[in-house]
Write a structure and sequence with these properties.
Layout (H helix, E strand, L loop, with lengths): L17 H14 L5 E2 L11 H13 L11 H15 L8 E5 H13 L5 E6 L4 H8 L3 E6 L10 H7 L4 E7 L11 H12 L5 E5 L15 H4 L7 E6 L11 E5 L2 H14 L5 H12 L3 H22 L14 E5 L17 H12 L1 E2 L1 E2 L8 E5 L4 H16 L3
Helix pairs in contact: 2-10, 3-10, 4-5, 4-9, 6-7, 11-13, 12-13
The chain binds 4'-deoxy-4'-aminopyridoxal-5'-phosphate (PMP).
GO molecular function: transaminase activity
Family: Belongs to the class-I pyridoxal-phosphate-dependent aminotransferase family.
InterPro entries: Aminotransferase_I/II_large, AspAT/PAT-like, NHTrfase_class1_PyrdxlP-BS, PyrdxlP-dep_Trfase, PyrdxlP-dep_Trfase_major, PyrdxlP-dep_Trfase_small
Length: 403
């Protein structure tokens, strides 16, 4: 007999993250012999740079295999401090920095440390899905603010203003944005900052995980750099996952007011004891070495973006604008909604369309419903060119087969 545990009320409405569900589904289908292409993945196809792997190996051989300080090794904190200064002209002291198991943990620790029941967190949509359940797990309530395509999927200052209530504790400002690939310019952020200056109790979770996957050269700006007066109530979060193709190494970080960082470290001391020693050594090598790899890889991704968006725009019923950052296309599928598959099944939603693509075209894509904006699908171009060409062929065929 399989026993079912009695669950905490905290779990009500909490689901496995959509990305993890899709990853599992793709693995199952592959195991069943299907030639699945994962356009849903947040993994880059690039390897972690060689010198980073070498640094990890050397650290392990040197015996750096013990627990580190909970808040991260002093050497990695120093490397993060230098990177924030180099990339954003942001000056943080070591006691204002914490190293975490991926930026996921930085975000969650901050929410857990600060939210009381019914506290609100403003999340612009489309969003990275885990923001919502992290807020709920921490006892708060997400307040979703839609960001329309005709404004480049960016938050408008007036919509932010309208969403702020006496219960608002945080606003999430993700730049560049997963899943839309939108990039907030310094001017865009200044407009958001101007609203926030009128609301001194609202704090900012600035998530810059994709800051180096930008196609115009400079790293994406972050709020504390644009409006220094917001720095005392901003948590600047980032990580190594996307910039250096180190998704599985699980290194993220947060920089912010010492009093908040201290509470986040307390939570970390009681939950994970901190990040992996070997991964931290690797992260130092990534942050401290020449950064040429970032521009080289961004150029490759840019070429793939151009090719994939051209092919996607050639599929009947689909349309997208090439994004300024990230490795995702947010594709409107409004033109296929209401059509039917050859077996008569109606495509009524983007989730139906995603299921259809999985069943009929062996393509895994993210439905817009999972990131709060429909009818869209998110497809990744962090795939080799040959995969992108094959995926586009399947997509085109699948769209043509709809009536
Ligand atoms: N923020 C955003 C916007 C993301 O897309 C992701 C992962 N895809 C994360 C945070 C978390 O990444 P990690 O924990 O690997 O640093």
């Amino acid at each position: 007999m399989n026993a079912t545990p009695i669950l905490s009320p905290r779990m009500s409405g909490i689901k496995a993250s959509p990305a993890s569900v899709l990853r599992r589904r793709a693995r199952e289908l592959r195991a069943a012999g299907r030639e699945i292409i994962e356009l849903s993945s947040g993994n880059l196809d690039f390897p972690t740079p060689d010198h980073v792997i070498a640094a990890a190996h050397q650290a392990a051989r040197r015996g750096e295999t013990r627990y580190t300080d909970v808040d991260g090794t002093p050497e990695l904190k120093r490397a993060v401090q230098a990177a924030l200064l180099r990339d954003h002209q942001l000056d943080y002291e070591p006691n204002e920095i914490v190293i975490t198991n991926g930026s996921t943990q930085a975000l969650f620790n901050a929410l857990l440390a600060t939210l009381a029941p019914e506290d609100e967190v403003i999340v612009p949509a489309p969003y990275w899905a885990p923001y919502l359940d992290q807020v709920r797990l921490a006892g708060g309530m997400p307040v979703i603010v839609p960001c329309a395509q005709n404004n480049g999927f960016r938050l408008r200052a007036e919509d932010l203003q309208a969403a702020i209530s006496p219960r608002t504790r945080w606003i999430v400002v993700n730049n560049p944005v997963n899943p839309s690939g939108a990039l907030y310019s310094p001017e865009d952020l200044a407009e958001i900052a101007a609203i926030l200056m009128r609301h001194p109790d609202v704090w900012v979770l600035a998530d810059g995980l994709y800051e180096h996957i930008v196609f115009n050269g400079a790293p994406a700006p972050t709020l504390a750099e644009i409006e220094p007066r917001l720095k005392p109530r901003t948590l600047t979060v980032s990580g190594l996952a996307k910039s250096y193709a180190m998704m599985g190494w699980r290194i993220g970080y947060a920089a912010g007011p010492a009093a908040l960082i201290r509470e986040m470290i307390t939570i970390q001391s009681q939950t994970t004891s901190g990040a992996s020693s070997i991964s931290q050594a690797a992260a130092i090598a990534a942050l401290d070495s020449a950064q040429d790899v970032l521009a080289e890889r961004a150029a490759i991704l840019r070429a793939r973006r151009d090719r994939f968006s051209e092919l996607v725009n050639g599929c009947s019923g689909l349309s997208c604008t090439p994004p300024e950052a990230t490795f995702y296309l947010l594709v409107s599928c409004a033109g296929v909604i209401g059509k039917r598959a050859s077996d008569g099944k109606l495509i009524a939603t983007d989730r139906d369309f995603s299921s259809y693509l999985l069943e009929q075209a062996d393509l895994v894509v993210f439905p817009g419903e999972d990131f709060g904006l429909s009818p869209y699908i998110r497809v990744s171009f962090a795939n080799p060119s040959s995969t992108i060409e094959e995926a586009a062929k399947r997509l085109k065929r699948a769209c043509e087969a709809l009536q």
